[in-house]
Amino acid sequence: MADELAHKNKRMILTTTTKMFSWQLAPFIKKGKLVEGYEEETIRKYIKKYFSVENKAGRLAVIGEKIEDDGEEKISGPSPDWLDKWWEDKLADYFLIEADGAAGRPVKAPASHEPVTPLSTTDLIGVIGIDALGLSLQEENVFRSEIFSRLTGLNLGEKIGIEALAFLICHPEGLFKGAPPSCRRHLFINKAEDPENLKMAEELTFQVLKICPRGISDIIIGAAGQKEAVAEVIRRVKTP
Q: Are 183 and 126 contacting, i.e. CB atoms less than 8 angstroms apart?
């Protein structure tokens, strides 16, 4: 998404409200600028100056502090309150924010403190890896597997099916937990890289539309790691 917006000459802030591995953000830091700091006003002034140089648009600022976490270099993001202020002040055209992560697993269930979603969020993208289907419900496959079990009714050790994933997506404490009421919710079914996974993603889409009467604006099927990341987009038809 950041690459797409960069081609449209938009001012972008890329960050997280939790922590991300430095290597995940490294390509974007190369293209733009890493802005570090512990004072909200200091960061705000720097970003304004950075975006206003020669009145150039299309600049990318990555906001965060480099930290050491379990022997890994990560970037810790700013407070969601700061992001709300910066959005209100139109500090950038777009804010791309990672509000939660799955620790490298295809699916997770959020804990009580997750996700950390700014109140000013306009569009929230929930991501599910279709490769979770058929896997055993255990921690090595599902981040926070016990919470997943509680939300979906699937017992630990049982195989994950389409119905369980759909329940997680649609549950108030599931994938879109804590979404601001006014924001648009988009579901991205990831890793549909071959005909079999694409078919399973379509089946999951049907189930989600069946049990989520409202709330999800559209469902995107694709594979984030591919050059053509989007295979299908299913939009909910609005009725009077």
A: no
Q: What is the 3-state secondary structure (H, E, C) of the chain?
A: CHHHHHCCCCCEEEEECCEEEHHHHHHHHHHCEEECCCCHHHHHHHHHHHHHHHHCCCCEEEECEEEEECCEEEEECCCHHHHHHHHHCCCCCEEEEECCCCCCCCEECCCCCCCCCCCCCCEEEEEEEHHHCCCECCCCCEECHHHHHHHHCCCCCCECCHHHHHHHHHCCCCCCCCCCCCCEEEEEEECCCCHHHHHHHHHHHHHHHHHCCCCCCEEEEECCCCCCCEEEEEECCCCC
d(CA 77, CA 73): 13
pLDDT value at position 240? 40
Q: Is the pLDDT of residue 138 over 70?
A: yes
At residue 76, does pLDDT exceed 70?
yes
